[in-house]
TrEMBL record, chain A:
The keyword Chloroplast does not apply. This is DUF4212 domain-containing protein. Residues 13-88 form the Sodium symporter small subunit domain. Keywords: Membrane, Transmembrane, Transmembrane helix. It comes from the Bacteria. It holds the Pfam family DUF4212. The chain crosses the membrane at residues 20-45, 57-77.
From TrEMBL, chain B:
This is Cation acetate symporter. It comes from Pontixanthobacter luteolus. Belongs to the sodium:solute symporter (SSF) (TC 2.A.21) family. Pfam families: SSF. PANTHER family: NA(+):SOLUTE SYMPORTER (SSF FAMILY) (PTHR48086:SF5), SODIUM/PROLINE SYMPORTER-RELATED (PTHR48086). It is found in: Membrane. It is a multi-pass membrane protein. The keyword Iron does not apply.
Length: 90, 591
């Protein structure tokens, strides 16, 4: 019994660490497309064009939103896999 | 059929639909009333969340704001969508696993304190009432312009509709009406956008139309044309904006974190069956929201082009019908400063403040104003940003049924958000204050009755705010997001991601973040509005963006206080471990 719950809590710890790593990576992308491309690097990116729009402006008003959607579904998919791997899925 | 008849038919049909759904989905238990029984499909919940979230501000005001702000309007686009990434990754699945009914439930349990719960309830009620006042104003505008009834009667009708489905159906009724309202709203937003995109660029997809070449033979793209004509009129370029990068950064961040901390949005994720469903559901919510949010910047740019073309350098006598219609509704004004009978649009304010109309008309037939003409600006036209989306179909000469659709869509947006807000207010009163704090022995039936009573009372207060809008309402919408960012978000976040955060730290953090943000916004918006200029701001951050500093203060104070006070009891560590793993959400809700 003790052995079992010990193993279970080890699995939960490993799962949580993997989750935090994934979160850090995805939140970095989140920050880069919005605050990075849409605000801080916009003046630089605006010299390039995408679909008739300056690139920085496009990130601020269109692109960042598309990336946000992809981020959430990617996270959802990876977490499902992690949960199966650690046998913690709901 | 006249446009007026069509508007009555469209609005009447949509109202009948909402009430029909409410009767079909009545709530029988507190669990159904607070979280719709916890069995809503993630895609359905995503759609309901989108309607819950997209308020009168998103539907009616946002594109108009962007049209006049240009690049600076990006703060709303990124801020109000990026928050969903934080919600899906950092909060929603864990709160769902926790498995209770409200946000104060979580804060009160995690920080083992009735005081923490009460602080959370106060934040929640303040945020929600600020927000709801804006919805009722939206209902009032739509009714008075499109249905030709007094604002007061319009608000009362709106209240009656929300009363029926929020009080009867609770979260269950609200969820399914919100799905219907989303469909009405998105259809009403996309149809005119597609028409206008076709008219201006020949491209039926507004998102692509934004980057296309304008149909007028000039060979310029939409943004090039806007930049050129605005600069000729003395404005800054549309693609540049005028806010500082620091301010744009902070406003975007405050809106994102605020979105993630808004109680009426968070509580929607309590209604899905599993923790993993909460993640997926947030993704779907953002898909449905993005449909409107990626269309809005296109609508904004098209509206500005149409507005310039049809108003600037046009004689008032030749002014289009929509111009005089909205003038009659007090939302447009023209002051013929140079006495030439022709309307000039330029940068700067036509006059100070909102128009005060005299009961007289001028030589061209315009309504005369009591306002002193604005010094140092040639601008003669005042236009309330809120009318751009509503007037768009008329400006572009679209058929009557499109105008009727937009009226129904605006009402759907305002009512769906109002209902969601009313529900979190009533749950906070009946569940957090009554059941959990003052009268724990109350029966389930009694609690359900109290929830319905609280919802009714909240509707009446909201109605009063709509009929007698206090002048400060429009000024303090920044409160809702700033306070959510500075109070609720950090407390929930630390509750999930640290085991060591204790009661003392969480309360001290919430109170200090809240107090700082409240005082900063109140100082610049209420006590000393004349001082509200960039030179006086802390680090150049406007009241709209200060919530992010409030959040940092909350985190710092909480961490320092927690270091010097006793650690949380052992059960809290187990609770945190429980919410971090998804397994067991179904079982947890059986007990």
């Amino acid at each position: 019994m003790d052995k079992n719950s010990d193993a279970a809590s080890k699995r939960a710890d490993a799962y949580w660490k993997a989750n935090i790593r994934l979160l850090c990576a995805l939140m970095t992308v989140w920050f880069l497309v919005s605050f990075g491309a849409g605000i801080l690097f916009r003046p630089f990116l605006d010299q390039f064009m995408i679909g008739g729009l300056p690139l920085g402006f496009w990130f601020a008003q269109q692109g960042s939103i598309y990336v946000f959607i992809v981020l959430i579904f990617f996270y959802s998919w990876r977490m499902k896999r992690l949960e199966r791997k650690f046998d913690l899925d709901d | 059929m006249t446009t007026q008849t069509l508007i009555y038919i469209f609005v009447g049909l949509s109202f009948a639909l909402y009430i029909g759904i409410a009767i079909w989905s009545r709530a029988g238990s507190t669990r159904e009333f607070y979280v719709a029984g916890g069995g809503v499909h993630p895609v359905v919940n995503g759609m309901a969340t989108a309607a819950d979230w997209m308020s009168a501000a998103s539907f009616i005001s946002m594109a108009g704001l962007i049209a006049f702000l240009g690049y600076d309007g990006s703060v709303y686009l990124m801020g109000w969508t990026g928050g969903y990434v934080m919600l899906a990754l950092l909060l929603a699945p864990y709160l769902r696993k926790f498995g209770e009914f409200t946000v104060p439930d979580f804060i009160g349990t995690r920080f083992y304190s009735k005081a923490a719960r009460t602080v959370a309830v106060i934040c929640l009620i303040f945020i929600s009432f600020t927000y709801i006042a804006g919805q009722m104003r939206g209902v009032g505008i739509v009714f008075s312009r499109f249905l030709d009834v007094e604002v007061e009667i319009g608000v009362v009708i709106g209240m009656a509709i929300v009363f029926v489905y929020a009080v009867l159906g609770g979260m269950k009724g609200i969820t399914y009406t919100q799905v219907a309202q989303y469909c009405v709203m998105i259809f009403a937003y996309l149809v005119p956008a597609i028409f206008i995109s076709l008219l201006i660029t020949g491209n039926p997809v507004p998102q692509l139309g934004l980057g296309s070449v304008v149909n007028d033979g000039s060979g310029l793209t939409v943004l090039q044309k806007l930049d050129e004509s605005l600069q000729m009129m003395g404005f800054g370029a549309y693609t540049q904006g005028s806010k500082s990068a620091v301010d744009v950064f902070c406003i975007t961040a405050a809106l994102m974190v605020g979105t993630a901390g808004l109680p009426h949005v968070i509580v929607r994720f309590f209604t899905v069956p599993k923790a993993s469903d909460a993640r997926r559901s947030a993704g779907w919510a953002l898909v449905f929201i993005a449909l409107l949010y990626t269309t809005a910047p296109a609508v904004a740019a098209f509206a500005r082009i149409n507005f310039n073309d049809s108003v600037h350098q046009t004689a008032y006598q030749d002014a289009p019908a929509w111009f005089t219609n909205w003038e009659a509704n007090n939302l447009i004004a023209w002051q013929d400063k140079n006495g030439d009978g022709v309307m000039q649009v330029a940068s700067g304010d036509a006059f100070e403040g909102a128009p005060e109309y005299l009961e007289q008309t001028g030589p061209s037939g315009e309504r005369l104003l009591a306002n002193a003409p604005g010094a140092g600006s040639d601008n003669e036209v005042y236009v309330d940003r809120d009318i751009m989306v509503l007037a768009n179909p008329e400006i572009a000469n679209l058929p009557g049924w499109v105008i009727a659709l937009v009226a129904a869509g605006g009402l759907a947006a305002a009512l769906s958000t109002a209902a969601g807000l009313l529900l979190v207010i009533s749950a906070a009163v009946s569940h957090d204050l009554l059941k959990s704090t003052f009268r724990p022995e109350i029966s389930e039936k009694g609690e359900l009755r109290a929830a319905r009573l609280a919802a009714s009372a909240a509707i009446i207060v909201a109605g009063f705010l709509g009929i007698y809008p206090p002048g400060w309402v429009a000024q303090v919408v920044a409160f809702a997001f700033g306070l959510a960012a500075a109070s609720l978000f950090p407390a929930i976040f630390m509750g999930i991601f640290t085991k060591s955060m204790n009661r003392e730290g969480a309360i001290a953090g919430m109170v200090s973040g809240l107090a700082f943000t409240f005082l900063y916004i109140a100082y610049f918006k209420l006590w000393a509005p004349q001082a509200n200029v960039a030179a006086n701001w802390l680090l150049g951050i406007s009241p709209e963006g200060i919530g992010i500093i409030g959040m940092l203060i909350n985190f710092s104070v909480a961490i320092i206080v927690a270091k010097f006070t006793p650690p949380p009891p052992q059960e809290v560590g187990q609770l945190v471990e429980m919410i971090r793993v998804p397994r067991g959400a179904r079982q947890a809700r059986e007990h």
